[in-house]
Amino acid sequence: MTVEIDKSSFRGLVGHLRLNDPSNVACSLERQQNGTHIIAVVPLSGCGTEIEDDDENLIFKNAITSVDDVNDVITRKHLVEVDIYCQYPKTSNVTLSYNMHRCNVTVEEKGFGTFTYQFEFFHSRRFTSMIDPRSYPLEYDVGDRIYMDIEASSSLNNTELFVESCRAAPYDNPSYRPTYSIIEHGCPVDRTVEVHSPRHEKHFQFSMEIFKFIGLHDQVYISCSVILCEAGNPNTRCSKGCINSTQSRHQRKREAVVQTARHYISQGPLRLRRSSEITATSLNLNLVFIAGCLLTAVAMICAVAIYKVKSTTRVKYELLPSTED
Fold it and tell me: Which strand ranges, in their side-by-side order, compose the sheet holding 187-188?
C-alpha cells in the first residue's frame, strides 16, 4: 500500500510517526515524507500489517500513529492515529490469450536446401491419429503415456532424421533450469521411454509416461535437439546412434555436406488435469468419514446417557432395621 497524507490535516502534530511495527528500519516513516505530505509505503506482509476477510474481500490494515518515541510500546497520552487499509476482491475475472501449439521449424542450410521439422503428439502407439493443435494445452493424469512424433520434411530423398537429445522443462525454453533429461546423446535416459518403429527414416516416434515438476509448476514443455543427415553415410552423427558422453566429446567436426547443424524443436504445454474433481472426491470422502465418526460419537454419547438414566431411575430396595416397637 502507498499512502500520501497532507500534513495540514494533522493540526498540532508533535512527536514521531510510526506504523504498527516500528522494529524494521524499512518501515520508518521519517524518511518517507516531504515538506507537505506524509508518505507511507506499507508492505502487505510486513510492518505490522494485519489481514482480515469478509464474504467478498481480503482487507489489509495498518495505522499511522504519532508517538513521543518510535520504540515506545505503550502510551498514556491521546494519540493521533490514522487507520489505513487496502482491500482486494476474493473473486475476479482474469483473461489471458496466447498461442499454445508450437509452430513447425523451417531451416535452410547449404547442401540440404530448405527443410521443416514438425513435432506432434498422437493419441496412441499406432501414430495414425494426431492430436488436434486446437486442443492445446493437452491435459493428462500423472502416469499416462504420451506418444510423440518428430518428422523432417525435405525435398531431398536421401536424408534421415536423428534425435540427439530431448529434455522437459516447465517453460518453452531449453536453457531454463531445472530441466529433466529424456534422451541424451541418442540414448533414452528416462526409464519409461519407448522408441517405436517409424514409418520411414524422416520420422522419430517415441513415448513415455507423463510426470509433473515438483513445486508450483503445472505444465511441461518438451524440447529436442535434432539433426538431418545424408542417409547411409557412416561418417554422420545419425549413423552413430546412441553413444556415451565420452565418445560424443571426440566426434569429428561435422561435414556440412553430409549432415546439418543441430536444431531445436519443442512442443507443449502438457498439463495435469484440473485437480478440482480429485479434490472434491477426496473432500467428499473426508466428509463421509467425519460424518461417520460424528454419528458414532453421538451414538456412544446417547448410549451412555441412556445407561445413566436407567441407572438413576432403577428402584433400589434396602432392608429396614427391625425395632422393638
Answer: 138-140, 263-272, 219-230, 159-169, 180-184, 187-188
Q: Right CATH number for 2-89 from 3.40.50, 1.20.120, 2.60.40, 3.30.160? A: 2.60.40
What does the DSSP 8-state code read for residue 165? E
For 88, other C-beta atoms within 10 Å of its C-beta total 12
Residue from 244, 237, 257 nearest 162 by CA: 237
Q: Determine the straight-line distance between the first and last CA of the chain, rounded to whole angstroms.
A: 95
Q: Would you call 261 helix, strand, or coil by DSSP?
A: coil
For residue 260, give the nearest of 100, 155, 110 by alpha carbon: 110
SS3 content of the chain, % helix, strand, coil (to 5): 15, 35, 45
- pLDDT per residue as tens digits for the range 128-154: 999 999 888 899 988 899 999 999 998
